[in-house]
Specification:
Length: 308
């Protein structure tokens, strides 16, 4: 899986990353996918002691830097996204701390400023034609904001903005333990898992994390995997299942983590990547990155504490 992220068709010769690989060529360049890959590869190199692979990230860091627009935010489909911008900032900072020899640029500074402004405004994206979970000021933002805050990344102004935003993001959890995006009647479990990953990183809201994990387990399929939406018959989802497995591993629920990993076997492509879901032919970048951490964590009896 790591080799597919480093040398598979999801990574172009330029160092740019696609969202996924599919026969219909529907994929697009995706900075978020590159950011997740960078953090996963940094984690892998540190865990395995293979720093030589870090050199291969240099072109990808250039791609991420170029993805930062004049307003200090990452754009996708003609729109600026707070979540993507925060993840790119995490990736650039992580690469620098991991020793990737990439020249200092203004990208981190510009991203910090752009994200600070959006957080202070209480918005997650510029006005869009349609509101969905990823463009809402919702619980999925707990993951990158928690990473930046606990690791002291970005500027102090950004970390202050994150501290002000946290109560709003934490309040998205309902009495049942589910994190629900604003305006959504259903629970999108991919976003719910991002919220729980943020809580795990923060480590100061154990009861919210416990309730969130209990709710997540209530949505488990008989095969040990998870769908995309709550209480809805839907195919096995690679990203949610891999995220859930990492969370269980981190919380020392190894049996649940192993069940999730076993469910992912049905989504494995010959390339080593994971298909997005049970009815998809898309080999998905972020799902593969999440599963790589879960897989190695189970094999080596370690927790995927970075949650890339």
């Amino acid at each position: 899986m790591v080799n597919w992220l480093l040398a598979g068709p999801v990574r172009l010769p330029s160092g740019a990353y696609l969202s996924w690989v599919s026969s219909d060529n529907s994929s697009t360049l995706y900075a978020e996918a590159a950011a997740v890959a960078v953090r996963t590869i940094c984690w892998w190199c540190r865990t395995c002691g293979d720093d030589q692979q870090l050199l291969r990230l240099i072109p990808t860091l250039a791609f991420l830097e170029q993805a930062v627009a004049d307003d200090g935010l990452v754009r996708h489909r003609g729109q600026s996204w707070l979540f993507d911008s925060l993840l790119v900032l995490c990736a650039l900072e992580t690469a620098g701390r991991s020793g990737v020899p990439y020249p200092a640029t203004t990208a981190v500074e510009r991203l910090s400023q752009g994200c600070t402004e959006m957080l202070n405004a209480g918005c997650a994206s510029r006005p869009a034609d349609e509101m969905r979970w990823s463009s809402a000021f919702g619980p999925h933002l707990l993951k990158p904001t928690s990473l930046l805050l606990t690791m002291g990344m970005g500027t102090e102004q950004l970390r202050r903005a994150i501290r002000r935003a946290l109560p709003t993001l934490l309040s998205c959890q309902d009495m049942a333990g589910a994190f629900r995006s604003p305006g959504e009647n259903r629970v999108y479990l991919h976003a719910h898992c991002y919220a729980l990953e943020g809580l795990a990183v923060l480590a100061n809201a154990p009861e919210q994390l416990r309730k969130g994990l209990v709710y997540l387990l209530s949505q488990r399929r008989p095969d040990g995997g998870f769908p995309h939406w709550n209480d809805t018959p839907s195919p096995l989802a690679a990203d949610v299942t891999a995220q859930a497995g990492r969370l269980f591993l981190l919380c020392e629920e190894r049996d649940a983590a192993a069940r999730a990993r076993a469910a992912l076997e049905s989504l494995a492509a010959p390339s080593g990547a994971l298909y997005y879901h049970a009815e998809s032919s898309h080999q998905n970048s972020w799902s593969t990155a999440f599963a790589a951490q879960l897989d190695y964590g189970l094999q080596a009896s370690i927790a995927a504490t970075d949650l890339a």
